[in-house]
Every structure is written in C-alpha cells, then in structure tokens.
Amino acid sequence: MTTSGRPVKATVFGTGSWGTAFGMVLADAGCDVTLWGRRAEPVEAVNSTRTNPDYLPGVELPANLRATTDAAEAAHDADFTVLAVPSQTLRENLAQWAPLLAPGTVLVSLMKGVELGSAMRMSEVIEDVAKVGADRVAVVTGPNLAREIAARMPAAAVVACSDEKVAQRLQAACHAPYFRPYTNTDVVGCELGGAVKNVIGLAVGIVDGMKLGDNAKGSLITRGLAETTRLGLSMGADPLTFSGLAGLGDLVATCSSPLSRNHTFGTNLGRGMTLQETIAVTKQTAEGVKSCESVLDLARRHGVDMPITETVVGIVHEGKPPVVALKELMSRSAKSERH
What we know:
Strand content: 5-15%
Order of helices and strands: EEEHEHEHEHEHEHEHEHHHHHHHH
Helix content: 40-55%
Number of helices: 15
CATH class of the largest domain: Alpha Beta
Distance between the termini: 48 Å
Structural class: alpha/beta
Number of strands: 10
Number of domains: 2
C-alpha cells in the first residue's frame, strides 16, 4: 500500500487489544504502522519481542509495525491517525494529541461509545476537539472481536466516512487477506450500531448469567436491534445500515461470543456478582457499562423509547436486582412489533 511513491503511514494511538489488532491489520495490508502507548513496558515488548503480552499474548506482530511512547513521533507524517482509547477518555487524550497531528491526516475512530454529558458520538468529539471537518473523520466498525482478528481469522468490517473517497482510501489501507472492509457514508448509523450493541450485549449477558435460555436471548437481540434502529431513524441514519455489518453483524458477534467484554460483564452480573465485583474481575474496558447512560440520555433527547437500555441502566447504575428489572421489562404494555 503506497501513496505518492511511499508506503502509507498509519499511527494507532492505543496499545490495547483492538488498537494493536487493527495496527496489525494495517501492517498486513502493507502500511508502515506506529503504535503509541503511554506505558513503556508494552511499547518495549512490541519493539523487542514483536508481541503485546498484556493484551494479545502469543500473537506475533508484523515487522512493519513498531511502537513508541513519544506522541509527536507517532503522529508525524501519518496519512491515517487511528484512535483506539476508551470512549470516555477520548476528549482529554485528543486535546493533548491534536496539536501534533499531521496536516491532512484522516482521523479514524475505533471506539464504540457515546460521550457522557454531551451525548456526542465519537466522530463528533473528534471534530470538536481536533477542529476538523467530517470529511477528515472515519469510523471502523462491525463484528470485530480483537482476539479473532489477531489470530487472522476471517472478518468483515465497515469503513464509514461522509466523504466516499476518504472511506475508499481507508478501505484500501486496511484490506488484508483476512480482513474485508466495506464502505458506507452513513456515519451516524454505523456509530450508533456500535455503541448500542454494547448495551444490548450487557443485557444478553445478564440473561445468560441468569440461565434464562435462548428464546430470551433471541428476543433481546431482536428487540435491541429495534431500539437501535428507532434511535438511528430519529437521528437521520439510513435504516439499511442496521441490517448490515455495523448493526446486526456487530450485535450478533457481541451477544454470542465469550470474547465480548460487554457480554462477559453482563454474565457476571446475571450470576449475582455486584457491580464492583464485576469491575474488579474485568481487566479491559466494557464500553457499555458507562455508555448505557449516555445512550439513554441521547434517546431521551430525541424522544425515543429504549426500554432494554433503560433496564440495563437500572441494573448497572441504580442497583436494581436483575430479577426485578426483568419482571418490569416483561410486564410493559403490549404493542405492535412495528411500534
């Protein structure tokens, strides 16, 4: 992969599992990749052993991927600047990195969340902090469990940007033998699909932890997709997006895989663990834990009914016992399926 006669340069801010895995995808697609990490230990491990033992143990990283703790060095001359940090820390981190960004770089969000307080999507936070237009911001989303991608197992994804040509450039930059990206210009729908599926993943995990069966799981997945679509339509998204990789595809992967952090978090809650106990045994960020509040805030701002999301907020943040929350959800007034 080259641009102007040189390899495409990509920087990934974040050395967690998904940031590292996507950096590997970019490198396998032919880009020169630099990972930025705050801590020296994982950075040194990447450079000296070609591994990231903290997040992807046993995975050998490509030779054209290196790491640094120097943000200015990482950002220099990057064609694509990929942001892979927890969604609630994006604003603070990007404020530090924005002055270092290469002119014209495309900012790529791997994050699936909605900002607490502002109820802004991640692309909106990027535009706000970095002072760039929507045509400079892209989103990568879909059924992309990091551990499977790191094992180079087949996966597809959506590359979304309001500028189709920018989306196509990023598509080419991350099209690896095992990673097939599709383009989409519906950034709103793609981001909402990624953010809300984390909340539904928590709900399905809770049901699994309570051993309530596959009928309950199938019902939650389907009605969760309906909630997501309702919110998306109220915000101008394309309804077809929610039947694609960014919607149904990501939702199914999250709700059915033990590799999903949100599903695992919910399962522990459903088994009777307290919120603090569940947080203590969770080593990585489960985005839905915080984003369920901001997603519900966003829904209320748009006058959209999201009962599953409201139920998750009640369990996670208001201390409502899952049995009580489930009874309340099941006893809601009966409606048409198209309501």
